[in-house]
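LOG
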Amino acid sequence: MIIYLHGFRSAPASIKAQALKTHMSARGLGDALWCEQLPVSPRAAIALIERQIDVARAAGHAPTVVGSSLGGYYATWLAERHGLRAVLVNPAVVAPLSLEAYIGQQTNLYTGETFDFTPTHIAELRAIDVPVITRPERYWLLAETGDEVLDYRHAVAKYAGARQTILPGGDHGFSRWTDYLDDVLRFAGLT
């Protein structure tokens, strides 16, 4: 099973989430994907995801978390806490710092919903920071050097020893995502 975690101001309607959903459905794996709208509060988002991890494990599945941007930050904490595999797509490695500039009213890029992002949310992000990963073999970093939002070098350093696919150019949306979907399914043990 794959638990897909979208990024800040994103949604299950994002290009990457929809591409993964379509790809998995075409291979008869549609039921093996969980992708829900995450709450703005990191604490509430983690609680929601952990409930899904519990559901998956109760059904006999070992989920893999796939996180994009802020979802990659969440995926790292969840992988460490629950012993999961994680695919990190242009992850927000220093989320508490990089998101401080977004304190205030924000708009979800896919739903149009407005929300307040507060210093409390930054504190909640700090509370789930993972300074050093413990088992690099559980991780796969996918990053493009042309990411205009986050510095990919932070991720390269953070996930040292992990499988890393670093591609020249591209952007924060990880423009070559569809090229790696079969590999993501293999990493998750679904094919």
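LOG (cont.) second protein
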Amino acid sequence: MPLIRPFAGLRPVPERAHEVVAPPYDVLNSAEARQRAAGRPWSFLHISKAEIDLPEDTDPYAAAVYAKAAENLEKMISAGVLKRDSKPCYYVYRLSMGDHVQTGLVAAASVADYDSNRIRKHEFTRPAKEDDRVRQIEALNAQTGPVLLAYRSDPVVDGLIDAVTVGAPEYDLTADDEIRHTLWVVSDESVIERLSSEFDRMNALYIADGHHRSAAASRVASKLNGGPEAMSSYFLSVIFPHKQMQILDYNRVVRDLNGLSATVLLEKIAAAFDVEGQNEPVAPARAGEFGMYLDGRWYRLSIHAERVPDDPVARLDVSVLAENLLEPLLGISDPRRDPRIDFVGGIRGLGELEKRVDSGEMAVAFSLFPTSMEDLMAVADANQVMPPKSTWFEPKLADGLVSHVLD
């Protein structure tokens, strides 16, 4: 089986694309999705968050939600808003957020290579979230939320993808959040063959975001058992060169000081970190450096070098902070389940950390240096798992631009 293959995408007709494109299903809650889709009958949120078309107290995991999603998808196809390409294609997808630009390939990625770990993971999944995606795929007979993948930047592949962007795009639109989405259709057989061949010689692809979507695709493929040629044996993905991807900081806020005073906490922190008071918010400039906001003041914390192990997971800043401060001093031993800790994506800025502490909701906040793609790939290559909330990718892929039908 090839690592990736083209597919006949189900996508908006060009004049409707701006009405269809929507944020990923998992970045909005039901109330936010209902608000975003108000007055927009063709928003893809009616498919990805179909509970917005049912009574407000509807359980998002109720059978009626998946049935409504299928009904809404069929309505959009019947109305001519969505149309399936007549032949298998690749699609080049460019995301632009301010000065940041990344350009990758929309493709169907091999479930078999996911199962064998050639498409590599770095997170655990939760059964309930997997089950949700399985039900959604089965109800729609399609994958509508792409998995974000990365490949080690390769000049030949990068050049092939860039060459496509010389032509006129099929879509070029800016969404409500100011993210620009540009898509080109790759229908030339020679270009398709070359892209397939170049990807097939790669040792690995890496899941950046979408572990539940890829795990669900594997479960559906196993149920259908369609064989290596079946489209159900592949899952919808967008694959970017790792050097173009942008990971923002993923920061931490803690509700209390675990019985310590601020003075005692600072004294104890000094056993593992150099501590310097700062007059401005601290955005760490390198790995091993952290900002801390406590009692209305910022501090710069620098971990003592001998406390950073060589293990690919233990050396991550999220692990270093947990092992040297959050667990031994603040008593946070299980950040996945402990209600005393919360996580704030870097897209919200350091002001959000100050706000959470100054309001009295939280007692202390920590800003972190972003995890690198190299670190993510090292963890995946070692077949290990990153701590929860280690990466925050921006910009986000849109839902609705291209969907993958399973037959």
